[in-house]
Amino acid sequence: MKFALFIGCNIPARVGQYLTSARAVLDRLGVELADFRSFGCCGYPLRSLDQQGYLLSSARNLAIAENAGLDILALCKCCFGSLKKAAQVLKESPSLKEEINRFLGREGLEYQSRVQVKHILSVLYHDVGLEALQGKIIKPYKGLKVAPQVGCHALRPSRVTQFDDPLHPVIFDALVRATGAESLAWDSRLDCCGAPLLGVNDEVSLQRTRDKIKKSREAGADYLCTACPFCHLQFETAQKRPLSSEGSEKPVAPLLYTQLLGLSLGIEEERLWSREDSVDSRGIRSYIREDEKHA
What we know:
Strand order of the largest sheet: 2-1-3-4
Structural class: alpha/beta
Helix content: 40-55%
Number of domains: 2
CATH class of the largest domain: Alpha Beta
Largest sheet: 4 strands, parallel
């Protein structure tokens, strides 16, 4: 299987380990990726300011992938939701689609609503499949408790994203359990991480994040597991900038799902972690069932 990889803006600039670990994991699982330097912003920053600008930015990416005959695999849940929303709007409004295509035509592009947009978790769950994924695990975990942060943009609006049940999502939990780790059912797991408010009202933003971290700690989590750069960065930021005496409590570090999975697949750690990463591999390695490895 082959996809057009959409990395967005934040990942290469601020969460490079997500990109490298995702490439390593997908390569190990036989998923081929095509890179398009012509991809631009998903359009999300313009959604509430300029609908035409947003739709044009998003549709341009969709048209590039469509022209190559490939569906899109997005790593960022915000990009995923933004591209899905644009595709839905243009599908439901032929006049808007015609207008956007007039602009795209200047680059020799045309969007015909044939391309699908998938998040990496969807690809792992549906396209690779749990059974095939589990068959590749050679270093399963034992005793590792993980609190998955599902993320808002993948779940809502569910009619558009069609990612998972918005009230009772199961995909992320199943993928965590496939590695041998325990996926915790923790309070606030479906709440926003607080990232959209950062820079607008930092106090409210970071307090909301710290509330989620506290809930994950109370549930017994060793790590918060993320699959979105915004959630990942928000959990890091909140624990570097404590708002109160809560800052002295034990942190619950964010761990990317591609890192969690990659280590259990036996991938070299230098392909999963970066020097700037807030979490190194040593703590997670201690949960590997060394006596139960299987080829």
